[in-house]
Amino acid sequence: MKNQDFTTRFSVDQTPKEVFNAINNVRGWWSENIEGDTDKLNSEFKYHYQDVHRAQMKITELIPDQKIVWHVQQNHFKFTQDQKEWTGTDIVFDIYEKQGKTIVDFTHKGLVPAYECFDLCKDAWTHYIQGSLKELITSGKGSPTPKENDVSAQPAATPSRTSISICHRLRIDVPVETVFNAVTTQEGLSAWWTPDTKARPEVGSMLRFGFGPDYFKELRVEELHHYDKVKWLCLKAQEEWIGTTISFDMEPHPKGTVLNFHHDNWKAYTHEFAGCSYAWALFLRSLKLLCETGKGLPYPEFDKQ
């Protein structure tokens, strides 16, 4: 019978020793929310992502430059019926040389398709192993989840009692990390909203979105909380947009991410409001397509079938 454990592989030019050290630097590629030693045999460390995912690992094998094994002693998921999925499984890194390259075989033994969390965990592990860990090895800098007490946020405009909002809610079948990157980075935003995008994922930075030669919008990043909230304040655009706020709230789901979108602080139900609501629905479809297929439908193609 075919082994159903989740596994993924990559190769790099760095030495097995460099790879081994990078994997043990768990805070450098998975999450900064780690408590305990991650590079000593028989040590235990804890991981958490808000109240959504908590785990305790024990390092049961640590063969220098060859193999690392974590045993999952405890695990809790907020979003699955069996909240203890992962408990008793093993996370394995095999390191070896082949044809001048260093190969990393990652296997989560016991993470199988029968698990409710399988699709989400498969995609999340792929993001961290093929993306963040490989980046740490090759460039010295990974993309771990930042510390939760390091919330990048500033007070933002509060909707007035008389304001109205555009609201959309949709499921995107990829992890929250992928959706977050798509709504914060210049590469992501240009691939689903408009190619004429200038953006930096930093609180207080200005975002510029061009729509044709004569019209653009400027928004300021008001809140940026990995990986669950992004909020912008519109400063330049057509008059009805100025002073409105746009927010993306992301919730983990067994199949990926639930995105709650709000465009708040509109003053009236105008033709522009109605047209904007429809346009946002199409652009959010473009965002979903980008995340799930790798190709969105940004302006001016967003209304194409």
Q: In a few lines, what is going on in this structure?
A:
This protein has two domains: 6-139, START domain (Alpha-D-Glucose-1,6-Bisphosphate, Chain A, domain 4), CATH 3.30.530; 155-293, Alpha-D-Glucose-1,6-Bisphosphate, Chain A, domain 4.
Topology:
Layout lengths: L5 E7 L3 H9 L9 E2 L8 E6 L3 E11 L3 E11 L12 E9 L2 E9 L8 H22 L12 E2 L10 E9 L3 H7 L3 H7 L4 E2 L7 E5 L5 E10 L3 E8 L8 E9 L2 E11 L4 H23 L12
Antiparallel strand pairs: 1-7, 2-3, 3-4, 4-5, 5-6, 6-7, 8-12, 9-15, 10-11, 11-12, 12-13, 13-14, 14-15
Helix pairs in contact: 4-5
What does the model show?
By secondary structure, the protein is α+β, with helices and mostly antiparallel strands. It has two domains: 134 residues, Alpha-D-Glucose-1,6-Bisphosphate, Chain A, domain 4 (2-Layer Sandwich); 139 residues, START domain (Alpha-D-Glucose-1,6-Bisphosphate, Chain A, domain 4). Helix content is 22%, strand content 36%. It has five helices and 15 strands. The strands form two sheets. Strands 8, 9, 10, 11, 12, 13, 14 and 15 form an eight-stranded antiparallel β-sheet that branches. It has a seven-stranded antiparallel β-sheet with strand order 1-7-6-5-4-3-2, covered by helices on one side. Helix 4 crosses helix 5. The chain starts with 5 loop residues before the first strand and ends in a 12-residue tail after the last helix. About 4% of the residues have low confidence.
